[in-house]
Amino acid sequence: MEAIYEAFTNNGMEFIDGGVRYSKKELQILSGENWFYDILEDILRTFEGSENAEVVFFGGSDSFSSPELLGKLREIRQAGIAMRS
Description:
The chain is of the alpha+beta class. The protein is 39% helix and 16% strand. The strands form two sheets. The chain has a two-stranded antiparallel ribbon. The protein has a two-stranded parallel sheet with strand order 3-4. Helix 2 (35-47) runs parallel beside helix 3 (67-78). The longest helix has 13 residues, at 35-47. It starts with a helix and ends with a strand.
């Protein structure tokens, strides 16, 4: 059920009383302990398989990143998604 929910919400749909509708949100706020990991997951889902995909990070450093975050960054690079900051 969670996979279905994520498939809808990650593709511009939102659940309302009685059904779903296209979301008009242009901004999504991620919070919590794993917010940056969630962003990296979204980047991978969104751009995997795309040609010339590139992500630009501003104001960040991976020098304090956990092994899990470094692994996710490596996974993004291996998917052919260019990254720079």
